[in-house]
Protein: Rod shape-determining protein RodA
Amino acid sequence: MNQRKTEISKGVDYILIIVYFILLAIGLLAIFAVTYKDGDPVLQSFIGYKTDYSKQFYYACVAMILGLFIILTDSKFFPATANLWYAGGILLLLLVFPFHSAVKGTESIIRLGGFQFQPAEFCKISVALALAKYLSLPEMDFSKPKSQLIAAIITLVPAVLTVLQKETGLALVFFAFFLVMFREGLPPIYIVIGFVAAALVITTLLVDKNILAIILTVITAIVIFFSQRQIKRDKGLLVKIILIWLLCVGVQRFGVPFYSHMFLKNIR
Structure:
């Protein structure tokens, strides 16, 4: 019996579990403080599944049961079924389009009776499992463009489906997986392009697009001026700089306003 307890508790990060319960308690208290009405019985309102904090309490209980299941499950189970989890997540995202319910301006929720389910949230976990399994393959060579492309597809497919569901904020979470790829050997240029694209979206909200195009052109000219020696040794560098400039200006003038509009719409 003692040996069994040792096996179950082996590898468990108790500090992380304590932090989880602290954050959970803070979240419940915050929801309770905002939505509680004077005169409502506290205990009954918590177990009645009619208030926001009551529903959150039950969701937390379900999450703890799932967490216990994960701890007791053989660790080999999740890598072995990662592709199935990913396929299930994509299927759920596709089911949103014919079966979605409009809830508070979003169209990414499936309603099952009194239960509301957002597949994009579940898909975050399935993408993490699938990407982790792919990157941990023994024959994986992440320096090859083919491997990088497959990893990007694993991440971008659910992100695109989430954007089509008008959930740009949730879609941005999937792009965080590129930081994991960067640790695995993804060239820094892709990370730079991603941050530049994000900066363009934010800047377009604040600066006129014509002025921004002039600023981008001036920055490109400065980069070319200070890179003259490298350009003399490698003529292709100049072509790359110009292509990046054309891409930034083109996206800024045509693509970014569209995504900025979607971003603002989702915020509202």
